[in-house]
Amino acid sequence: MQRRDVLKAAAAASVLTAARCSQIQAASPVSGKAEHVISIWLGGGMGAMDTFDPKRLGDPAAKKAGSYYPSIETAVPEVRVCEHLRQLAPLMDRVTAVRTVHHQVIDEHAAATNFMHTGRPVSGTVVYPSLGSIVIRERGSVSEEAPPYVLIGYPNVTRGPGFLGARYGYLYLTDTSRGPAGLSRPDSISPQRQTRRESVLQSLREVQPAPHRDLLRDYEEAIDLSLKLSGPAFNQSFQLEEEPAELRNRYGGEFGQRCLLSRRLVQRGVRFVEVSHNLNFLNGTGWDVHSAGILQQHALIQELDTAVSTLILDLEQQKLLEKTLIVITTEFGRPPEFDSGGGRGHQGSAFTCVLAGGGLKHQGAYGVTDDLGKNIVEYPVSVPDFFATIHAAVGIDHAKYLYDGDRPVPITDRGQPIASLFAS
After folding, report:
1. What pTM does this model have?
2. Measuring CA to CA, how many Å separate 112 from each of 20, 30, 333?
Protein backbone atom coordinates (compact mmCIF):
# COMPACT_ATOMS: atom_id res chain seq x y z
CA MET A 1 0.00 0.00 0.00
CA GLN A 2 1.28 3.45 -0.93
CA ARG A 3 1.86 6.06 1.78
CA ARG A 4 -0.78 8.23 0.09
CA ASP A 5 -3.37 5.42 0.40
CA VAL A 6 -2.57 4.97 4.09
CA LEU A 7 -3.10 8.67 4.74
CA LYS A 8 -6.39 8.63 2.81
CA ALA A 9 -7.65 5.63 4.81
CA ALA A 10 -6.64 7.24 8.10
CA ALA A 11 -8.38 10.47 7.15
CA ALA A 12 -11.56 8.61 6.20
CA ALA A 13 -11.51 6.68 9.48
CA SER A 14 -11.09 9.93 11.39
CA VAL A 15 -14.10 11.44 9.63
CA LEU A 16 -16.24 8.37 10.40
CA THR A 17 -15.14 8.34 14.03
CA ALA A 18 -15.91 12.04 14.41
CA ALA A 19 -19.31 11.54 12.77
CA ARG A 20 -20.09 8.62 15.10
CA CYS A 21 -19.10 10.65 18.16
CA SER A 22 -21.23 13.53 16.93
CA GLN A 23 -24.22 11.20 16.51
CA ILE A 24 -23.81 9.81 20.03
CA GLN A 25 -23.57 13.26 21.57
CA ALA A 26 -26.50 14.55 19.53
CA ALA A 27 -28.61 11.54 20.48
CA SER A 28 -28.08 11.89 24.22
CA PRO A 29 -27.63 15.49 25.39
CA VAL A 30 -30.00 14.90 28.32
CA SER A 31 -29.19 16.25 31.76
CA GLY A 32 -31.28 16.67 34.88
CA LYS A 33 -31.10 18.88 37.94
CA ALA A 34 -31.52 16.46 40.84
CA GLU A 35 -29.19 17.08 43.79
CA HIS A 36 -29.67 13.93 45.86
CA VAL A 37 -30.32 10.21 45.44
CA ILE A 38 -32.19 7.93 47.83
CA SER A 39 -31.51 4.39 46.64
CA ILE A 40 -33.75 1.65 48.06
CA TRP A 41 -32.30 -1.84 47.75
CA LEU A 42 -34.62 -4.87 47.68
CA GLY A 43 -32.19 -7.68 48.36
CA GLY A 44 -33.27 -11.11 47.13
CA GLY A 45 -34.98 -10.28 43.86
CA MET A 46 -38.34 -8.49 43.61
CA GLY A 47 -40.81 -10.19 41.28
CA ALA A 48 -42.10 -7.67 38.72
CA MET A 49 -45.34 -9.54 37.93
CA ASP A 50 -46.21 -9.44 41.64
CA THR A 51 -45.50 -5.69 42.00
CA PHE A 52 -45.01 -3.15 39.18
CA ASP A 53 -45.62 -5.24 36.03
CA PRO A 54 -48.68 -7.38 36.78
CA LYS A 55 -49.79 -10.07 34.35
CA ARG A 56 -52.65 -12.57 34.21
CA LEU A 57 -53.42 -14.31 37.49
CA GLY A 58 -51.54 -17.53 38.04
CA ASP A 59 -52.22 -20.49 40.32
CA PRO A 60 -49.35 -22.24 42.09
CA ALA A 61 -51.52 -25.23 42.98
CA ALA A 62 -52.44 -25.78 39.34
CA LYS A 63 -48.93 -24.86 38.15
CA LYS A 64 -50.44 -22.04 36.08
CA ALA A 65 -47.84 -19.32 35.48
CA GLY A 66 -48.79 -15.72 36.23
CA SER A 67 -49.15 -13.08 38.92
CA TYR A 68 -49.78 -14.07 42.50
CA TYR A 69 -52.14 -11.14 43.14
CA PRO A 70 -54.81 -9.19 41.23
CA SER A 71 -53.88 -5.77 39.84
CA ILE A 72 -55.38 -2.31 40.30
CA GLU A 73 -55.53 0.89 38.26
CA THR A 74 -53.18 3.80 38.93
CA ALA A 75 -53.12 7.55 38.36
CA VAL A 76 -51.64 6.86 34.91
CA PRO A 77 -54.11 5.43 32.35
CA GLU A 78 -53.33 1.85 31.27
CA VAL A 79 -50.63 1.47 33.91
CA ARG A 80 -51.58 -1.09 36.55
CA VAL A 81 -49.79 -2.35 39.65
CA CYS A 82 -50.30 -5.12 42.19
CA GLU A 83 -53.24 -4.70 44.58
CA HIS A 84 -50.80 -4.43 47.51
CA LEU A 85 -49.32 -1.22 46.09
CA ARG A 86 -52.53 0.60 46.92
CA GLN A 87 -50.88 3.74 48.30
CA LEU A 88 -48.41 4.08 45.44
CA ALA A 89 -51.09 3.59 42.77
CA PRO A 90 -52.43 7.19 42.97
CA LEU A 91 -48.83 8.51 42.95
CA MET A 92 -47.64 6.75 39.79
CA ASP A 93 -47.64 10.06 37.91
CA ARG A 94 -44.53 10.87 40.01
CA VAL A 95 -43.04 7.43 39.27
CA THR A 96 -41.67 5.40 36.36
CA ALA A 97 -41.47 1.64 36.72
CA VAL A 98 -38.76 0.65 34.23
CA ARG A 99 -40.11 -2.78 33.32
CA THR A 100 -37.46 -3.92 30.84
CA VAL A 101 -34.23 -3.92 32.82
CA HIS A 102 -32.18 -7.00 32.00
CA HIS A 103 -28.78 -8.62 32.40
CA GLN A 104 -27.12 -11.97 31.81
CA VAL A 105 -25.11 -12.18 35.01
CA ILE A 106 -24.74 -15.62 36.54
CA ASP A 107 -27.87 -16.68 38.42
CA GLU A 108 -26.41 -16.06 41.88
CA HIS A 109 -27.23 -13.34 44.42
CA ALA A 110 -23.74 -12.02 45.19
CA ALA A 111 -22.69 -11.67 41.56
CA ALA A 112 -25.98 -10.03 40.56
CA THR A 113 -25.89 -7.71 43.59
CA ASN A 114 -22.42 -6.57 42.59
CA PHE A 115 -23.61 -5.99 39.02
CA MET A 116 -26.60 -3.93 40.19
CA HIS A 117 -24.35 -1.73 42.34
CA THR A 118 -21.41 -1.25 39.98
CA GLY A 119 -22.96 -1.84 36.56
CA ARG A 120 -20.30 -4.40 35.71
CA PRO A 121 -19.58 -8.07 36.35
CA VAL A 122 -16.98 -9.04 38.93
CA SER A 123 -13.45 -8.66 37.60
CA GLY A 124 -10.30 -10.36 38.79
CA THR A 125 -8.17 -7.32 37.99
CA VAL A 126 -10.35 -4.28 38.73
CA VAL A 127 -12.51 -3.43 41.74
CA TYR A 128 -15.14 -1.18 40.19
CA PRO A 129 -16.74 1.67 42.18
CA SER A 130 -20.37 1.56 43.19
CA LEU A 131 -23.03 3.91 41.85
CA GLY A 132 -23.03 5.84 45.14
CA SER A 133 -19.27 6.35 45.06
CA ILE A 134 -19.35 7.57 41.46
CA VAL A 135 -22.16 10.03 42.21
CA ILE A 136 -20.31 11.62 45.11
CA ARG A 137 -17.04 11.63 43.18
CA GLU A 138 -18.65 13.51 40.30
CA ARG A 139 -20.97 15.81 42.28
CA GLY A 140 -18.99 16.23 45.49
CA SER A 141 -20.39 17.11 48.90
CA VAL A 142 -23.54 19.14 49.33
CA SER A 143 -22.53 20.27 52.82
CA GLU A 144 -19.33 20.22 54.85
CA GLU A 145 -21.44 19.28 57.86
CA ALA A 146 -22.62 15.94 56.46
CA PRO A 147 -21.03 12.91 54.80
CA PRO A 148 -21.71 12.70 51.07
CA TYR A 149 -22.60 8.97 51.06
CA VAL A 150 -24.52 7.12 53.79
CA LEU A 151 -25.37 3.44 53.83
CA ILE A 152 -28.24 2.06 55.90
CA GLY A 153 -27.95 -1.57 54.97
CA TYR A 154 -25.24 -4.05 54.04
CA PRO A 155 -21.63 -2.77 54.29
CA ASN A 156 -19.59 -4.63 51.68
CA VAL A 157 -17.39 -4.12 48.65
CA THR A 158 -20.30 -3.89 46.21
CA ARG A 159 -21.26 -0.56 47.82
CA GLY A 160 -17.69 0.67 48.06
CA PRO A 161 -15.47 3.08 46.11
CA GLY A 162 -13.35 0.48 44.33
CA PHE A 163 -10.42 2.01 42.48
CA LEU A 164 -11.64 5.55 43.27
CA GLY A 165 -10.17 5.28 46.77
CA ALA A 166 -11.35 5.55 50.36
CA ARG A 167 -12.38 9.20 50.21
CA TYR A 168 -15.38 8.12 48.09
CA GLY A 169 -16.54 5.45 50.52
CA TYR A 170 -19.70 5.39 52.62
CA LEU A 171 -20.60 6.07 56.23
CA TYR A 172 -22.36 2.99 57.61
CA LEU A 173 -25.30 3.30 59.99
CA THR A 174 -26.61 0.42 62.06
CA ASP A 175 -29.91 1.89 63.23
CA THR A 176 -32.10 4.97 62.93
CA SER A 177 -32.07 6.11 66.54
CA ARG A 178 -28.49 7.31 66.89
CA GLY A 179 -25.50 8.42 64.87
CA PRO A 180 -22.62 6.23 63.70
CA ALA A 181 -21.61 3.92 66.55
CA GLY A 182 -17.91 4.64 66.19
CA LEU A 183 -18.34 8.41 65.96
CA SER A 184 -20.91 9.26 68.60
CA ARG A 185 -19.23 11.30 71.31
CA PRO A 186 -19.47 9.76 74.82
CA ASP A 187 -21.48 11.76 77.34
CA SER A 188 -18.35 12.13 79.48
CA ILE A 189 -16.67 14.22 76.75
CA SER A 190 -17.86 17.79 77.20
CA PRO A 191 -17.64 20.32 74.34
CA GLN A 192 -14.75 22.03 76.16
CA ARG A 193 -12.85 18.76 76.50
CA GLN A 194 -13.44 17.98 72.84
CA THR A 195 -12.12 21.40 71.86
CA ARG A 196 -8.92 20.77 73.83
CA ARG A 197 -8.46 17.40 72.10
CA GLU A 198 -8.83 18.98 68.67
CA SER A 199 -6.33 21.67 69.65
CA VAL A 200 -3.77 18.99 70.56
CA LEU A 201 -4.39 17.21 67.26
CA GLN A 202 -3.84 20.44 65.35
CA SER A 203 -0.58 21.07 67.22
CA LEU A 204 0.69 17.61 66.26
CA ARG A 205 -0.23 18.20 62.64
CA GLU A 206 1.68 21.46 62.53
CA VAL A 207 4.96 19.79 63.44
CA GLN A 208 4.53 17.01 60.88
CA PRO A 209 5.40 17.35 57.19
CA ALA A 210 2.44 17.76 54.89
CA PRO A 211 1.16 14.38 53.66
CA HIS A 212 2.13 13.77 50.06
CA ARG A 213 0.73 10.30 49.52
CA ASP A 214 -2.96 9.93 48.61
CA LEU A 215 -3.43 7.33 51.34
CA LEU A 216 -2.24 9.75 54.03
CA ARG A 217 -4.34 12.59 52.63
CA ASP A 218 -7.39 10.34 52.64
CA TYR A 219 -6.66 9.46 56.27
CA GLU A 220 -6.40 13.11 57.30
CA GLU A 221 -9.64 13.93 55.49
CA ALA A 222 -11.35 11.01 57.23
CA ILE A 223 -10.23 12.36 60.63
CA ASP A 224 -11.60 15.81 59.83
CA LEU A 225 -14.92 14.40 58.68
CA SER A 226 -15.24 12.14 61.71
CA LEU A 227 -14.76 15.13 64.00
CA LYS A 228 -17.58 16.96 62.28
CA LEU A 229 -19.88 13.96 62.36
CA SER A 230 -19.34 13.35 66.06
CA GLY A 231 -20.74 16.77 66.90
CA PRO A 232 -24.34 17.69 67.72
CA ALA A 233 -25.19 19.24 64.32
CA PHE A 234 -25.05 16.03 62.29
CA ASN A 235 -26.32 13.82 65.12
CA GLN A 236 -29.50 15.86 65.27
CA SER A 237 -30.47 14.07 62.04
CA PHE A 238 -31.18 10.96 64.10
CA GLN A 239 -33.64 12.61 66.47
CA LEU A 240 -36.68 11.25 64.67
CA GLU A 241 -38.84 12.17 67.62
CA GLU A 242 -38.65 15.75 66.35
CA GLU A 243 -41.00 14.68 63.56
CA PRO A 244 -44.77 14.73 64.12
CA ALA A 245 -46.00 11.44 65.55
CA GLU A 246 -48.60 11.19 62.78
CA LEU A 247 -45.87 11.35 60.10
CA ARG A 248 -43.69 8.77 61.84
CA ASN A 249 -46.66 6.43 62.08
CA ARG A 250 -47.44 6.89 58.38
CA TYR A 251 -43.93 5.77 57.46
CA GLY A 252 -44.48 2.50 59.30
CA GLY A 253 -41.99 0.20 61.05
CA GLU A 254 -38.22 -0.07 60.97
CA PHE A 255 -37.93 0.15 57.17
CA GLY A 256 -40.24 3.16 57.14
CA GLN A 257 -38.15 4.84 59.82
CA ARG A 258 -35.06 4.24 57.67
CA CYS A 259 -36.82 6.03 54.83
CA LEU A 260 -37.74 8.90 57.15
CA LEU A 261 -34.11 9.12 58.26
CA SER A 262 -33.02 9.21 54.62
CA ARG A 263 -35.21 12.31 54.10
CA ARG A 264 -33.65 13.96 57.16
CA LEU A 265 -30.16 13.07 55.91
CA VAL A 266 -30.94 14.64 52.54
CA GLN A 267 -32.07 17.79 54.34
CA ARG A 268 -28.81 17.75 56.29
CA GLY A 269 -26.85 17.67 53.04
CA VAL A 270 -26.13 13.99 52.28
CA ARG A 271 -25.79 13.48 48.53
CA PHE A 272 -26.45 9.71 48.25
CA VAL A 273 -28.27 7.43 50.70
CA GLU A 274 -28.82 3.71 50.25
CA VAL A 275 -31.57 2.14 52.35
CA SER A 276 -31.88 -1.65 52.41
CA HIS A 277 -35.23 -3.33 52.81
CA ASN A 278 -33.82 -6.43 54.47
CA LEU A 279 -36.37 -7.33 57.13
CA ASN A 280 -36.43 -11.04 56.43
CA PHE A 281 -38.51 -11.86 59.48
CA LEU A 282 -41.66 -10.71 57.72
CA ASN A 283 -41.70 -13.83 55.55
CA GLY A 284 -38.49 -15.61 56.50
CA THR A 285 -36.82 -15.07 53.12
CA GLY A 286 -37.10 -11.40 52.21
CA TRP A 287 -37.61 -10.86 48.47
CA ASP A 288 -36.03 -14.24 47.63
CA VAL A 289 -39.42 -15.95 47.54
CA HIS A 290 -38.65 -19.57 46.83
CA SER A 291 -41.16 -22.13 48.10
CA ALA A 292 -43.19 -21.00 51.15
CA GLY A 293 -41.46 -17.61 51.26
CA ILE A 294 -44.05 -16.36 48.79
CA LEU A 295 -46.91 -16.91 51.24
CA GLN A 296 -46.07 -13.71 53.14
CA GLN A 297 -44.64 -11.80 50.19
CA HIS A 298 -47.60 -9.43 50.38
CA ALA A 299 -46.34 -8.18 53.77
CA LEU A 300 -43.07 -7.06 52.12
CA ILE A 301 -44.95 -5.39 49.28
CA GLN A 302 -47.28 -3.59 51.68
CA GLU A 303 -44.36 -2.38 53.79
CA LEU A 304 -42.60 -1.08 50.67
CA ASP A 305 -45.82 0.57 49.53
CA THR A 306 -46.38 2.32 52.87
CA ALA A 307 -42.83 3.63 53.27
CA VAL A 308 -42.15 4.72 49.69
CA SER A 309 -45.52 6.40 49.16
CA THR A 310 -45.03 8.35 52.40
CA LEU A 311 -41.46 9.25 51.39
CA ILE A 312 -42.68 10.64 48.05
CA LEU A 313 -45.38 12.75 49.68
CA ASP A 314 -43.07 13.86 52.49
CA LEU A 315 -40.36 14.98 50.05
CA GLU A 316 -43.02 16.75 48.02
CA GLN A 317 -44.30 18.53 51.13
CA GLN A 318 -40.73 19.57 52.00
CA LYS A 319 -40.24 20.79 48.39
CA LEU A 320 -37.46 18.24 47.95
CA LEU A 321 -39.03 15.74 45.52
CA GLU A 322 -37.86 17.56 42.38
CA LYS A 323 -34.33 17.66 43.78
CA THR A 324 -34.27 14.08 45.08
CA LEU A 325 -34.22 11.03 42.82
CA ILE A 326 -35.67 7.91 44.44
CA VAL A 327 -34.30 4.68 42.94
CA ILE A 328 -35.60 1.19 43.75
CA THR A 329 -33.39 -1.67 42.56
CA THR A 330 -33.02 -5.40 43.06
CA GLU A 331 -30.52 -7.96 41.79
CA PHE A 332 -32.89 -9.72 39.37
CA GLY A 333 -36.57 -10.59 39.04
CA ARG A 334 -38.65 -13.75 39.38
CA PRO A 335 -40.11 -15.94 36.62
CA PRO A 336 -43.88 -16.31 36.18
CA GLU A 337 -43.72 -20.05 36.78
CA PHE A 338 -44.01 -21.44 40.30
CA ASP A 339 -41.46 -23.83 41.76
CA SER A 340 -42.30 -27.16 43.41
CA GLY A 341 -42.94 -25.38 46.72
CA GLY A 342 -45.25 -22.77 45.21
CA GLY A 343 -42.67 -19.97 45.16
CA ARG A 344 -40.54 -18.56 42.36
CA GLY A 345 -36.95 -18.87 41.10
CA HIS A 346 -34.68 -16.19 39.60
CA GLN A 347 -34.97 -14.30 36.31
CA GLY A 348 -32.57 -11.75 34.82
CA SER A 349 -34.00 -11.62 31.28
CA ALA A 350 -36.61 -9.00 32.23
CA PHE A 351 -37.28 -7.32 35.56
CA THR A 352 -38.36 -3.98 37.00
CA CYS A 353 -36.45 -1.16 38.67
CA VAL A 354 -38.21 2.03 39.71
CA LEU A 355 -37.48 5.76 39.51
CA ALA A 356 -39.45 8.50 41.29
CA GLY A 357 -39.08 12.26 41.70
CA GLY A 358 -35.77 13.80 40.73
CA GLY A 359 -37.30 16.23 38.24
CA LEU A 360 -37.86 13.51 35.64
CA LYS A 361 -40.74 13.45 33.18
CA HIS A 362 -42.48 10.45 34.72
CA GLN A 363 -44.89 8.25 32.82
CA GLY A 364 -45.93 5.51 35.23
CA ALA A 365 -44.14 2.77 33.33
CA TYR A 366 -41.49 2.43 30.64
CA GLY A 367 -40.90 -0.61 28.47
CA VAL A 368 -43.13 -3.54 27.62
CA THR A 369 -42.71 -7.23 28.46
CA ASP A 370 -44.66 -10.14 27.01
CA ASP A 371 -47.82 -11.67 28.46
CA LEU A 372 -45.89 -13.43 31.22
CA GLY A 373 -43.08 -10.94 31.77
CA LYS A 374 -40.36 -13.34 30.61
CA ASN A 375 -39.23 -11.51 27.50
CA ILE A 376 -38.89 -7.88 26.46
CA VAL A 377 -41.20 -6.68 23.69
CA GLU A 378 -40.35 -2.97 23.51
CA TYR A 379 -37.66 -0.62 24.83
CA PRO A 380 -35.08 -2.84 26.51
CA VAL A 381 -32.99 -1.12 29.20
CA SER A 382 -29.61 -2.56 30.05
CA VAL A 383 -28.16 -2.03 33.51
CA PRO A 384 -25.64 0.49 32.04
CA ASP A 385 -28.61 2.31 30.44
CA PHE A 386 -30.38 2.45 33.80
CA PHE A 387 -27.23 3.75 35.48
CA ALA A 388 -26.75 6.31 32.70
CA THR A 389 -30.29 7.54 33.37
CA ILE A 390 -29.48 8.03 37.05
CA HIS A 391 -26.24 9.82 36.25
CA ALA A 392 -27.95 12.11 33.76
CA ALA A 393 -30.73 12.87 36.26
CA VAL A 394 -28.17 14.21 38.75
CA GLY A 395 -26.25 16.17 36.13
CA ILE A 396 -23.36 13.75 35.57
CA ASP A 397 -21.93 13.20 32.10
CA HIS A 398 -22.77 9.53 31.53
CA ALA A 399 -20.32 9.32 28.60
CA LYS A 400 -17.17 10.40 30.43
CA TYR A 401 -14.32 8.17 31.55
CA LEU A 402 -12.90 7.48 34.99
CA TYR A 403 -9.33 6.30 35.44
CA ASP A 404 -7.99 3.32 37.33
CA GLY A 405 -4.40 4.56 37.39
CA ASP A 406 -3.77 5.26 33.71
CA ARG A 407 -6.45 2.84 32.55
CA PRO A 408 -9.62 4.56 31.19
CA VAL A 409 -12.91 3.09 32.44
CA PRO A 410 -16.21 4.31 30.96
CA ILE A 411 -18.41 5.61 33.75
CA THR A 412 -21.45 3.49 32.78
CA ASP A 413 -19.98 0.87 30.46
CA ARG A 414 -21.36 2.87 27.53
CA GLY A 415 -24.96 3.08 28.74
CA GLN A 416 -27.45 5.57 27.29
CA PRO A 417 -30.11 7.41 29.35
CA ILE A 418 -33.83 6.88 28.79
CA ALA A 419 -34.30 10.12 26.85
CA SER A 420 -38.10 10.26 27.20
CA LEU A 421 -37.77 10.78 30.96
CA PHE A 422 -36.10 14.13 30.43
CA ALA A 423 -38.21 17.17 29.58
CA SER A 424 -37.48 18.57 26.14
Report:
1. 0.86
2. 32, 28, 11
